[in-house]
Specification:
Elements (H helix, E strand, L loop, with lengths): L2 H13 L4 E5 L9 E7 L5 E3 L6 E5 L7 E5 L3 E7 L19 H19 L5 E11 L5 H11 L4 E7 L3 E7 L2 E6 L2 E12 L10 H20 L7 E3 L3 E5 L2 E11 L16 H7 L7 E2 L1 H11 L10 E8 L8 H10 L3 E7 L3 E5 L2 E10 L5 H19 L2
Antiparallel strand pairs: 1-2, 1-8, 2-6, 3-5, 4-5, 4-16, 7-15, 7-19, 8-9, 9-18, 10-11, 10-17, 11-14, 12-14, 13-14, 16-17, 18-19
Helix pairs in contact: 2-8
Bound molecules: ligand ISC.
The ligand C=C(O[C@H]1C=CC=C(C(=O)O)[C@@H]1O)C(=O)O binds next to strand 7, strand 11 and strand 19.
Protein name: Isochorismate synthase
InterPro entries: ADC_synthase, Chorismate_C
Length: 391
C-alpha cells in the first residue's frame, strides 16, 4: 500500500476514535522496513488472558494489571514499505527544556535511598525511573511517529492508541522475546553511556556487573521455565547503539526443547511460560525480582503504567511472500498458518495527553551507583525522545 494511503487510513481511524497500533521492527542490515498497522474495527477494550490469543499485545509493567489485546480477528492489517534514507539524518539539535531543581533532588533522593538498601544487602539491583513533561509543538502523534521512524532505524518504533486508555509512542532498543517455530531469541541489555561518534568504548565495572546480572537472571529464568541451559546460547557482551546512547548487550537464543513447550503452528499459546519467566527483566525491574518490584511500587511515587511493560505481535500470522511456483502453492496450507511472537520492552517511550508528552526514563542502580551520575543518565535518555519532540 502506498505510504500516503497508509497514513490517511490511520488518521481516519484516529479521528473516529478507534484503536490502532502502527509499528516497525528494527531494520537489520538495511533489509526489512515494513511498517505495519493493526486497526481494530470496534472500540472495545479486549484483554489477553494467558497470551494464547493472536493479535497485538500491550502489557503494563505491573503483572497484576491486564495486558491489552487488539485481536487479530477483530482487526484489519495494513502494510507499507518504508524507504529509509541512505544516510540516517544527523541528530537534530534541539532546545533543552528546563528541568526543575525539585525534579532533580527528588530523583537523587530516591536513588540515594536505593543505594542504602543495596549496600545493606536487601537487593542486588533495582531500576528506578521518573517522568518528565514536555509541551508539544507538534501535537499529531502520527507525525511524531513518522519522525521516530526516520530517526531510529534500529529501534522498534510504534504509535499505539486506544480511546479508553490513551496514546503511547516509543522507539525501544530492547527485545523481550521473539518466538518462531521452536526457536526463541531474547537479549540482556543494560549499562548506558553517551554515543560520541564510536562504538569502540570501555565499560566500567559497575556497568559490566549490572549487565551480567541481567544475562544470568534471564538464563536462570529460562531454565525455571523448562528451557534447559544446554539448549541456550549467549553471545559475548558487546556495545550496541540506540540513538544517542550506547548499551552493553548480550544476545541469547535457543531452542524450546521438550514437547510441552514446542510451539507448533496449531498451538500458538505456548509462549506464555517464557513471557512470565522473562518479564519484568532485571533491565527494567531488578534483582531479586520481587524485592525490587516492591521497592519500585512503594518508592517511585507514580504509576509506570505501560512504561517497562512490553508490546508486540502475539502469535500473529506471519506475512508470507507468496510466489506462484508449484512448490509454494503446495506449501501454502502450511505456510498460511505460520505464527510469530515478537515482543519488545517498552522503553524510550512517552504518553501523549492534552498536547503534552509525558516521557518515562529510568536506569539500573547497584550499590556502586553515584546518584548524580544516575540523574545525568536519565537526562541523556530523555534526549532520545526530545530530539523528535522539540526539533
Ligand atoms: C530503564 C531504562 O533502560 C534500561 C535499559 C538499558 C539500559 C539501562 C541502564 O543502563 O540502566 C536500563 O536498564 C530506560 O531507558 O528507561
Amino acid at each position: 500500500m502506498p505510504e500516503a494511503e497508509f497514513f490517511d487510513r490511520l488518521e481516519g481511524q484516529y479521528a473516529s476514535g478507534l484503536p490502532f497500533v502502527a509499528y516497525r521492527k528494527p531494520i537489520l542490515n538495511g533489509k526489512k522496513n515494513e511498517v505495519t498497522a493493526i486497526l481494530q474495527q470496534d472500540e472495545q477494550l479486549y484483554h489477553s488472558k494467558d497470551f494464547t490469543e493472536s493479535g497485538f499485545v500491550f502489557a503494563p509493567f505491573d503483572t497484576s494489571g491486564k495486558a491489552i489485546l487488539f485481536p487479530e480477528n477483530a482487526s484489519e492489517k495494513l502494510i507499507f514499505e518504508q524507504v529509509v534514507p541512505e544516510e540516517v539524518p544527523a541528530p537534530v539539535t534541539f532546545q533543552k527544556g528546563e528541568i526543575s531543581g525539585e525534579k532533580k533532588s527528588t530523583h537523587i533522593e530516591l536513588v540515594t535511598k536505593a543505594v542504602e538498601a543495596l549496600k545493606a544487602g536487601e537487593m542486588e539491583k533495582v531500576v528506578l525511573s521518573r517522568r518528565e513533561e514536555v509541551e508539544l509543538k507538534e501535537k499529531d502523534p502520527l507525525k511524531l511517529f513518522r519522525d521516530l521512524l526516520i530517526t531510529y532505524p534500529t529501534a522498534f518504533v510504534y504509535c499505539w492508541y486506544h480511546p479508553k486508555v490513551g496514546c503511547w509512542l516509543g522507539a525501544t532498543p530492547e527485545t523481550l522475546l521473539k518466538v518462531e517455530g521452536n526457536r526463541f531469541k531474547t537479549m540482556a541489555l543494560a549499562g548506558t553511556q553517551k554515543f560520541q561518534g564510536t562504538t569502540d568504548v570501555e565499560w566500567g565495572e559497575k556497568e559490566k556487573q549490572e549487565q551480567q546480572f541481567v544475562t544470568d537472571s534471564i538464563r536462570q529464568g529460562l531454565e525455571k521455565a523448562g528451557v534447559s541451559s544446554s539448549g541456550v546460547e549467549s553471545s559475548e557482551p558487546y556495545t550496541a547503539r540506540a540513538g544517542n546512547l550506547l548499551h552493553l548487550r548480550t544476545d541469547i537464543n535457543g531452542k524450546i526443547p521438550n514437547s510441552k513447550f514446542q510451539i507448533p503452528n496449531n498451538n500458538p499459546g505456548s509462549a506464555e511460560k517464557i513471557i512470565s519467566a522473562l518479564h519484568p527483566t532485571p533491565a527494567v525491574c531488578g534483582l531479586p525480582r520481587e524485592k525490587a518490584k516492591e521497592f519500585i511500587l512503594s518508592e517511585e511515587n507514580y504509576d509506570r503504567e505501560f512504561y517497562t511493560g512490553f508490546l508486540g505481535e502475539l502469535n500473529l500470522q506471519k506475512n508470507v511472500q507468496r510466489s506462484r511456483t508449484r512448490r509454494n502453492v503446495e506449501n501454502l496450507a502450511y505456510r498460511a498458518v505460520k505464527k510469530e511472537t515478537d515482543l519488545y520492552v517498552n522503553l524510550r517511550c512517552m504518553q501523549i495527553k492534552d498536547g503534552t508528552a509525558i516521557l518515562y526514563i529510568g536506569g539500573g542502580i547497584t550499590k556502586d551507583s553515584v546518584p548524580e551520575d544516575e540523574w545525568q543518565e536519565t537526562v541523556n535518555k530523555a534526549e532520545t525522545m526530545k530530539k523528535v519532540l522539540l526539533k
